[in-house]
Amino acid sequence: MPENLTPRQIVKQMLQGSLPARPLFLPIVFSLGARLENLPLRGFLGNATKISNSLRQIRGHLRSDGVACYFDSSLELEALGGTLCWDAENQPPTVHWPSATSRGALPSGLRTPEETAKAGRVPVATDVIRRLKSQLQGEPLLMAAVTGPFTLAARLTELEGESALRAEDIPESALALAASVMREVAAALVEAGADAIFIQEAILPGLSAAEADAWASTLAPTFNVIRFYEALPVLLLTDSRSFAESSAVILQRPWDCVVCPALDVDSCISLRGTPQPSGVTLGVALGAGTLDAAGSGKLGPSLDPLLAEWRPILITTAGDVPVTTDMKRLIKVGEEVRR
User: What is the predicted pLDDT for the residue at 304?
Assistant: First the structure.
């Protein structure tokens, strides 16, 4: 593959079945822009101009293969009709619904999936993508995120944080709604010009083979929409512990996306020796401890052997990096990936 291909051209070849000569370096650096713009996170998330300006600055220093145009785990909840309560600056908000609901039930009065894709801050996200598409023509990939069905359904029904959550604990009605919202919001983002959509599944129950197949069927329509616009779907599994519990069934089935699990030091050690799964295109998300261990010219003694075995096509982070992240260290990681 010619070395002068842009990241966008590389993705187009990947969608046609070619593998990149090196992994794409796609760290998720988004909310750090609030600090650059000297804004509280609440104000930053609603200001497309400030977001666009800060992301151009970040990319200029990081020199990554992609720009994280919009990554916010509360995006769909607010667009569905929830009210965000910011109890502390630069901390994730809590969500309140217009009417009280019982645990395990969907709130009443929610917007439809079609309405959700036009509500809340979804238009801000699409505005950022359009701005950066015109300002960064032919350069980095434009990345954005939607919330995965298990995660969104669990948050809607207040099952987040439930210990030993099982797939059967989440109501089918909530999963169906979450899947439809995911598809509609993803469609809005790729229509605006996003090149890669990260489906963030932060809440993943233990899965049997049948449950993994059902989950994949729920995700498939969103994959199809993303690929229709010649964008790359990435299934980002941000909880390394839950991935480790279900890794066997997840890696045994074919996926029409990049499967990108978060790996901490313990999971890297436990998965070492696992051959690259056939029929699965893999990425790796740097999770707890792996990023801290990086920056000395290698990605770290726990991660390097696994990367050699799996040969991932992209390397990202396990969600939006904290504002306390050592950016010099992250830059060194990118330099190592691009060698």
Answer: 67
Alpha-carbon torsion, ordered 132, 137, 141, 144, to 10 deg? 20
Ranges of residues in the chain with a pLDDT under 50 are: 1-2, 294-297
Here the tokens at position 21 are 């000569």
Distance from C-alpha of 112 to C-alpha of 81, rounded to nearest angstrom:
10
Quote the tokens at residue 116.
């959700």
Site of tokens 């996926």: 255
Query: Which candidate, 89, 115, 103, 199, places its Cα nearest to that of 151?
Result: 199
Strand 281-286 relative to strand 258-263: parallel, antiparallel, unpaired?
parallel
Q: Which residues pair with 315 in a beta bridge?
A: 25, 284
Identify the CA nearest to 215 among candidates 160, 172, 248: 172
All residues at 6 or more sequence positions from 68 whose CB lies less than 8 Å from its CB, including other chains? 27, 28, 29, 30, 55, 143, 144, 145, 320
Could you tell me the end-to-end alpha-carbon distance of the chain, in angstroms, rounded to an integer? 15
Asked whether the beta carbons of 288 and 317 are under 8 A apart, the reply is: no
Under 8 Å between Cβ of 258 and 313: yes
Q: Which residues pair with 234 in a beta bridge?
A: 198, 258
Q: How many CB atoms lie within 10 A of CB 339?
A: 6
> What is the per-residue burial (b if ≥16 Cβ within 10 Å, else e) of 191-220?
ebbbbbbbbbbbbbbebeeebbeebbebbb
